[in-house]
Structures are given as C-alpha cells and as structure tokens.
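S1.2 Input.
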Amino acid sequence: MNPTDFERLGIFYLGGRLDAATRQATHAPMLLDARELTTHAVIVGMTGSGKTGLGVTLLEEAAIDGIPALVIDPKGDLANLALAFPELRAQDFAPWVDAEDARRQNLSVDALAAQTAERWKQGLAEWGQDGARIARLRDAAEVVVYTPGARIGVPLQLLRSFDAPPPQASDQLRERALAAGASLLGLVGVDADPVRSRELLLVTTLLERAWQEGRSLTLADVVRGIHTPPFDKVGLFDLESFFPAKERFQLALALNQLLASPGFSAWSEGEPLDIARLLRGPSGRPRLAVLSIAHLSDAQRMFFVTALLSEIVTWMRTQPGSSSLRALLYMDEIFGYFPPTAAPPSKAPMLTLLKQARAFGLGVVLATQNPVDLDYKGLGNAGTWMIGRLQTARDKARILDGLEGAAAVAGVQFGREQIDALVGSLETRQFLVNSVHQGAPVLMQSRWALTYMRGPMTREQVASIAAGAAPAQPAAAPVAQAPPATDAPMTIEAMLGAVPDAASALAATGGERPVLPPEVTEFFVAPDGASASPPTYRPFVLASGRVRFASSKAGVDEWRTIALAARLGDDTSQSVTAGAAAGGLDWAQAEALPASTTLERQPAEGGRFAPLPGAAARAPSYVAWRKAFEAYVAQTAAMTIFRCPSLKQMSGPGESEAAFRARLAEAALAARAGEAEKLRKKYGPRVRAAEDKVVRAQDKVSREASQASTQNVDTAVSVGASILGALFGKKLASVGNVGRARSAAKSATRAAKEHADVGRAEDELRRAREAFDAIEREVTETVRKIDTTFDPAALVLEAVHVKPKKSDLVMGAVALLWRP
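S1.3 Output.
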C-alpha cells in the first residue's frame, strides 16, 4: 500500500478492501470520510474478531487528523493508545511485553521484545506504514489515561455531577436530574425505576429545584436534603404521606455511609469532569482521553458513565452547529448501558446523543460483542455499521434488524439477503462495512495498528502511563486581580487550598465568638458537610463590588463581580505592600471568591473562633479597608481578550486562553475541511482535463512511432509523491510517469526519424506535460497555504487588555467573614 493512497485530508485509513466473491485483497485502501462519523457508527464482533483493533485504528486516524476523542474503556486495554514507539526499538517494547508469555516460549523478556518490535515493523510495512507515521500520531495528539474513583491514573472529580448546569429547557434539566439521581441511587443498591421509585422522584426533585435556582449541590447537601427536604409536597401528596421521615432517614443513612467510606474520597479528587478540558489540553492540542473504568464495580461504572454522558450532552448543547467532525465519543463495550427493554440511567443521555449529536459535529462510535443485548431501535440512528465475526445465528438476526432500521431512518434501500450472505463467512479482522453514505456494502480487512496492542493493562502499567502523560495542573487563579476568566463556581475546598493550614494553632487558641459593634457586618461560610466535628472559624475581611469592562475595540461591554477575602492575622504580622490598609490588611494577598459562594448569617452549632485582631473589632477599620479595596481594584482589575488575526475571531467574555485555543482548533479543522472541498471543486475539472490531454498525447506518440506495434507504452498513471491523489481520490498523472512517457516517445522518435509526425506528437506531449505540471505546482502551493493558515498549533494570538474606568466600580459589602 502506497502512503499517498490513504494520506488525505479528512479521510480515515482503516484497512484494505476485499473482493466479495474471493475474499482476497484488492490492493485498494478502505477509506472512511470523517464526516460520515457525525451520523455515528457501530462496531460489532465476537471475542477474537478484531473489533477492538478496528476501534483503535479508527481512533488513531482521528488523532492524526486533529480530532479529539473521549474513549470509555471498560476492559482496560484502550490505554494501549499511549504505546506509540516511532523508532520501533526492542527496548521500547520491553517494559510492556508479557513476562509470562516470554516464560511460556522459553525466551527472555528482551528476546520477546525484539521479536515483537520486528513483528510490528513487518506488520506496519505490509500496510504502507512506518515509524514516521507513528511519530505523526504521537505529535498530533496526547493520550491521557483517567481513572475515576481511583488514584491509579489521573483521577476525576465525579461529584461535580451535582453542580448546577447552564440554563436550559425544563425537560432537559429534568432529564439530567433523573440521570444523576438514578446513577447515585444505583451506588447504594436502589433500583431507581423512573416511574415507580419514590427514592428517585425525591432525589430528582431536590436536584431539579436547586438547579432551577442556579444552586449547585454537594453529596452532603443531597443527604441533608433527603433527611429534611426544603419542600413539603411531592406532586399532589404531602411529603410525609409520600415518603415518611423514618424511611427517608434510612435512605439518607445509606448515602451517608457511602460518603463516609474510605474509598469514596477518590471520587472528589483530581481534575474536574470538564468535557472541553478532557478533549483538548491548555494549548488547544487534541487529546485521546482514555477513561479507564475496569477497576470499578458495576454500580460505580454506571454512576460514572451516566455522569459522563450527561456532561457531554450539556457540553454539546453549548457548541455551535457543525457539519464537520468536531470530536468523537467511543465506547468499547456498550453491553448493559443501552439494552433493548430496560432503562438504566445511562440509556436516556446516550439516546439523546445518538439523536442530536450529529448537528453539533460530535460522532458516537459504539462497540460490542453482545449484539442481542442492544437497543437496535435506538441504534437505528447510526449510519455506519462495521460487522465482524458473530457467534450465533441469533446475533446475526439482531444485526440485520439493526441495519434494516438504520436504512429506514436514512431512507435508503436495504439488501437483507445480500448482507446476510456476506456476514456469514467473515474471518478474523474481516469486516462488512455498511454505510448509508455509500452505495453498497464493502468487505474490508482492518490495517495494522500503529500503537502496540498488548491487551488489558495492570494497575501498575496504567499508573506508569499516567505518570508520564498526565497534563500539568492548571495554574491557580492569581490573587489581587479580577476573578478567573470563568463563571464556574469554585468549591470551598479549592478556596481554602492556598491558605496555610493552621488547624493545630487554631485548636489551641480557639475560643468563643467575639462581640462586635452593630456597624460591623458578619458572614459565615458553611463548614464541609463531611466533617463530623464542630468547625473552628478563622477571620477574613470580605469586600465585593461590580466592575464594568467596556471596549469597542475588543467588542466587550460586561459587568463582573469581584469578591476578595483578605485573611486577618496579628496587626504586625502582615507584610505591607501597595494594597495594604489599616490593621495590616493586604488586598494584594487576598483570595478571589466566586460570586456563587454561599454566605450564612449564623455560625454552625458548637463552632469555635480564632482570635480576632483589634482593628477588625472597630468600625472605622472597615471604612479604611473599603477605600483601599476601591483603589486596589482600580489599579489592578483587568480583562484580557484574545484575538486570532488569521481566523478573524476573538475570545468571548470570560473565555480563557485555553478554551479559546480549543475553539480555534475546532474552527481551524472545519475551515481546513471547507477549503479542501473548495479546492476539489475548483481544480477537479482542470486536473482531469489536463490528465486526459497527457494520456491522449501519449497515445498519439505511440501510434506515430514506427515501433509502437512492439512496445506497450504504459498509459496508466500513479499518484507517486503528488498531492493531487490526496485531494481528488484517484490516480492522476505525475511528473515521473509523464517523464517516462516522454522518454518512450524519444526512443520511438529515434527509431522512426523519417516520420515528421512523431516530432510534432512529442511536442504536443511536452506541452501537455508542462500544463499538468503547472496545475500540480499551483495545487501544491495552495494546499501548503491552507495547511499553514489553518494549523491549530501555529495560530498566533494577540492579547487585548481592557481596564475599567474609576467610575465603573459599584461597591458592595465590606464585612467580617468567618471561614472554617
């Protein structure tokens, strides 16, 4: 296979086509247009059919093309995507080969690694691939292995699934609340039937009401809400008749035991479950985010998958529409998450994605070895089916039903008998590809994977991958500046992360709540619900205000809330800077608080209090702190807007540089695909006309030459190194072949000099060749400009800083803030 046969813009190279009658290779590559995956795909095959290998090759192609993917990995073998070894050295493979396999073969690990490296070189070469293509894959995207609920790889914070989603329609909000409630109840063994379960209805109502008010909940909030709900009726029934307090207490107790269990703390650690961040790194570089869940129990897997799918639905609805492939969601084993009759929590968000994701450029690819246990009515929304070896006739019948449904949805004819015959005799790594975008089903054999497919990984191996591939932690929001460029609420734990731990000192000096003059306003931050002991409060000064950032040049006019909490210590303990005020207070050392921080008027029962500096007990101090806060905000507050001149786009208000780069990367990919399509339409007729002229001139030389009867001048053309084949998808005349034709013409001319017509024919061939070469140079230069202009890694950003006017600050409260 020649690389120029498959290295094309927006094209996935999955393998080679097979002749339907003989099952022999046709030497034609099996290519899939990336846009076809926006209508989703299903990969089906029994164990050993090569199903996972086909999925890996599809993900490799997506990464090479700059398309990020979320990869749900229930079996633990898709972390193999991180094993990309461009140099194909034995020492690269050695840490990953199976030592038990080496022992069984009476080999050393190094010897087995050498054999594996050589086997990989040969396998790649058979499919026109080499180490350079592996390097291209590794450079195009990063592989990050996440392990929710465990610290094996990169952990994920799952409890954010109770955060208030962006404003959305009431039916969408209820759908999300139902999914979150059902998955949570599944963790404690409650069968959350959406019609009959009063537990699900209670939890769903708690979540839905909080989210309608824009409030986020923690798991502790849910536990407290179950025990003492903030409402007294559910539907037409009063709360006690619907769900008595004694029984609610038992449910709250079960969830509290889950919250208090030692292993559950891992669910609240690590990176947030942020889809945009999973898909792209801080620089906008695409990711293959492998979400490994092999270590979880069935209930925990359902909890995670449901939370993930719900977050994807929410993220999807915030994206602009797109006809090109923006991202992929791949799940290696869908069994149990999308059954035909039951309704697990994961089914509703998955069905939503299958029905709606196409409009947003999100492709869903689902794989399974259990065809009988899938909802084929729902999977009728999938436009591409890749079918491998099947285990039983019943499996085949279910597959044919699904294909028939997909054809009906797409409004195309379905040849059931033909496909039945083709599916019946497939071998390992052979697949029948049936797509509503193509005229007829195609038989193919999947290509050799670029990454080393060693099989399921151990916990230690996953940990070693994560240690080398984990992205840098996001930088903390700079203090004494405008709030971070995001409106996402910050947890209390995150706010306290930068505060030195003084728990032991406070425990020794904590006392009663001080008595303050009435002019001093007090607020309290609620303690962490997971803590059983009474809190000890530390004193801070809270100042807040609204600042307007307006700039016609940057295209912004926005008000932002700024809230800073400055820690109070001994009057002489604070360093004095430009932001310092009375009593040693320093706004330059303050922490930015999110506007959504909940403040209470009374402390928690039994709370103790750290010593309060004398300045904080005097009302005039707050007047001075207010003035210092105003001056500090006027001096330091700024909004940064990023501009991309090449794409003529600007970041939105509150959009971080990382988020803007991720959006630009998607825009660049879409623009590149659009420009490539324009190029095909513009140059296609010219290229083919020029090719026809070359072939006709070549034939004329052969006819005129006196030795044409004994020579067979090859009129076939090949792509060679030309970029034309990558654009127009057929074999076009290249410089080399036309050059050979001219040499043949010269030989023919020397053999028949008496024929003057041969010379004229040769001149005509030369002119046709020069015209073709000119078009090729023009197309090549245009493609180079397209690739340069729309290369996501090369996009240049300009920062536009917007500062507020002094009159654009509206002050809020300056108060004493007690925080545990």
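S1.4 Remarks. The radius of gyration is 33 Å.
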